[in-house]
Structure formats: structure tokens, C-alpha cells
Amino acid sequence: MWFRNLQVFRIPRNWELPLADFDKQLSRQLFQACGSQDAQSRGWISPRGNDQLVHSLNRQWLIALGSEQKLLPGAVVKQEAQQRAIHFEEEQGYKPGRKQMQEIRDQVTMELLPRAFSRYRSTQVWLDPIAGWLCMDASSTARADEILEVLGKSLDDAPVSRLRTQVSPAAAMADWLASGEAPSGFTVDRDCELKAHGNEQATVRYVRHALDGDEIRSHLEQGKQPTRLGLTWNDRISFILTDKLEIKRLAFLDILKEDAEKQAQDNDELFDIEFTLMTGELNQLLTDLTQALGGEAEED
């Protein structure tokens, strides 16, 4: 159950919302499969496949958002709409106007949706109501925004905000690369992306390449800023930090996974052990990373 990405948010520390109330409020937005005329559907599902919307263990919560999207390529709709526009012109003696063309496209979409294939996916969300973390296993901000939208519709009060630090990730990563020194507890790996400002946004990417040479410093001196940097924390977790304070390509030390497998008696126990290990490690990683970025920024 190890997360592979983190979109990092803050909720109030020692959040006072009781678990039972949280579960009850989530039930307002349960996932329902798409109907014949629905293009997409989103809602909460059980993260463990049972009747509970919140999996709670050691004061750590896990929830999951399910989503279904009908796959109806725009090119298919366009082609069919063009054919109907031709028939319209043959019958009426003139081409359909803009409003009529839009009505034709809408009609085609409604007729094709019931036959479209569906894509289903789920995204897990970890909440630590004590330390105040809310982290999504999502690789994009768009997916995070979808989750926040449903969460806002579910809860009476959703005090969620992006993690903001005193020092921007781009500025901090530039300092680490220029000095050749990572903050305490971290090491710089061999993956990096630097991007120039301006219209062209010239980009340089390094993959499995040493980052401690003059070449990197030369790019920094020319005004390029790091947008992605590979890091390892305490020789336990490797990841890519982005200039948007996203954490991607999370990889946990194999020994953590091996220990979990040795301790577990069955799949349910393995899930709980992995969840406990993962949240414990991520809690400390996020604390150390925040400090490496100068601490949290004060709220406006």
C-alpha cells in the first residue's frame, strides 16, 4: 500500500473532528457508477473494500476517492457531427450555423456516451489529524484539486491548505546544487531538471548523472532554476522534489518492506503494518523537509 507520490496539504494540528463524524460526512458524497448519460462520476469508496469509508489505525486515517470517466474521443464526436452536418445541409439547403452545430455535437455526445468505454481509478489520501498532514497519492495537481473539490462538498468545514514554506523549493534546490551540500539528513541524488525563464524556457535534464560539477553551477549562473531534484532522506526514502513542493517517485527502502512482510500473518495484517510504517516514515520526512525549506510560512 506504499504511496508513490505526495501532494502535501495542511489541516489544523490536533484536528477536533471526531472519526465518526468524519466518516458520516464523507458518506454525503459516496461514489456512484456513471449512468448512461454521465460523462464522469467521483465519490468516496472504502479504502479496504469493506463498509467503512475511513480506515483508522494508530490515530492515522486513510480514505480513498473513486472516479469513473467515460472515454469518448473528441475526434469520434467531431467526425460523426460533420457527417450529420452534411445531411443537414442536404435536407435544409444551407449549412448549420454555430448554435445548430453545437446542438448536433451535443446530440452526438449524448447518443455515444452509453456505448463509451469507462476508465476507473482510485486515489488514496492519508490524514494525520494529530500532526496536521493531509497527503494524496496523486502525481498531478489536477487530481489533487478533484479530491479537494469532493472533500469540500463532503465536510461541514474543510480547513485544508497547501503546505507553504519560508524558502521556495526552487531557491533551496539551487542553493543545494550550487554549494554541493544537501541539508542535514538528505543527500542529493543523480536526477535533476533545470529550466530557464522567458518564452523559450530552455530546459536541461540530468538522469543518473553526477550533479556536483561545474556544468550544473554554470547553468545556475546563467539563470536556470531547478524544477525537479532527486533526493534521499536518511538512506530510507528516495524521491523527486519539484518546485511546486510536490513529492514524486517515492521509493521506500527495501528493508522496510521486507520487515513488514516478515511480521505479517495475512494480507490484512500486512496492509496495517505497511500503513503504520509508511505514515511514521512520511511524518518524519515531511517534518525534516519542511525544516530544510526554512520552516512553514506564516499564514496571510
Automatic annotation (TrEMBL):
Q: Which GO terms describe its cellular component?
A: bacterial nucleoid; cytoplasm
Q: Keyword Secreted on this protein?
A: no
The organism sits in which domain of life? Answer: Bacteria
Q: Where in the cell is it found?
A: Cytoplasm, Nucleoid
Q: Name one GO biological process term.
A: DNA recombination
Q: Which UniProt keywords apply?
A: Cytoplasm, DNA recombination
Family membership: Belongs to the RdgC family.
What is the recorded function of this protein according to its Swiss-Prot or TrEMBL entry?
Answer: May be involved in recombination.
The record's section on NCBIfam families has:
PRK00321.1-4, PRK00321.1-5
Q: Which protein is depicted?
A: Recombination-associated protein RdgC
